[in-house]
Amino acid sequence: MANAPKLDLTVQYAMAKDGLPGRAQFRAWARAALQHDVVATLRIVDADEGRALNRDYRGKDYATNVLTFEYGPDASLAGAPLAGDVVVCAPVVVREAAEQGKDPLAHYAHLTVHGMLHLQGYDHETDAEAAVMEALESFVMMRMGFPDPYQYHE
């Protein structure tokens, strides 16, 4: 039996932690999405930092829900852990959850899983890639006891 992937995750709060999930929750959600060893930082930010990062790194001048920065994408081939940062913009998560009729906690979990999958090489640029990534996200979320994030009622 293969060893379970290892996670070395630092959780940073770049804003007041009131009402946000705790470090243990973020770690559990990140671990649930692991397929490879990962060393990462998960940073929870406000709208200003989220917008600045999205503008500076993606050329899009608005705060988005989650950004993933991969470092050394071929590291797993050499047996080293994958490394990167996942940035979750709290105000966007809360707004989207309200708009989509979702529990904010479930949306935080989903975006953590989504970011960790990006870190491990998954993407959704094409319909085929999106289908694979969304199916995996749904599987991980339901395995953790959350509803399928792509089956919501507006």
Describe this structure in words.
This protein has 154 residues and is of the alpha/beta class. The protein has one domain (7-143): 3-Layer(aba) Sandwich (Collagenase (Catalytic Domain)), CATH 3.40.390. The protein has five helices and four strands, in the order E-H-E-H-E-E-H-H-H. It has a four-stranded mixed sheet with strand order 1-2-4-3. Helix 1 links the parallel strand 1 and strand 2 (38-45). Helix 3 packs across helix 4 and helix 4 packs across helix 5 (127-143). The radius of gyration is 15 Å and the shape is globular. The N and C termini lie far apart (43 Å). The model has no long low-confidence stretch (mean pLDDT 93).
Quick overview:
It is built from 5 helices and 4 strands; from the N terminus they run βαβαββααα. It is of the alpha/beta class and 154 residues long.
CATH topology: Collagenase (Catalytic Domain)
CATH C-level class: Alpha Beta
Helices and strands, in order, run as: EHEHEEHHH
Shape descriptor: globular
- The total strand number stands at 4
The main pleated sheet reads as: 4 strands, mixed
Give the strand content.
15-25%
Order of strands, widest sheet: 1-2-4-3
User: What percentage of residues falls in helices of 4 or more residues?
Assistant: 40-55%
Radius of gyration: 15 Å
Mean pLDDT: 93
Structural class: alpha/beta
- Uncertain segments of ≥5 residues (pLDDT<50)? none
Number of helices in the DSSP assignment: 5
Distance between the termini: 43 Å
The CATH architecture classification is 3-Layer(aba) Sandwich
| CATH 4th-level superfamily | Metalloproteases ("zincins"), catalytic domain
Tally of distinct domains = 1
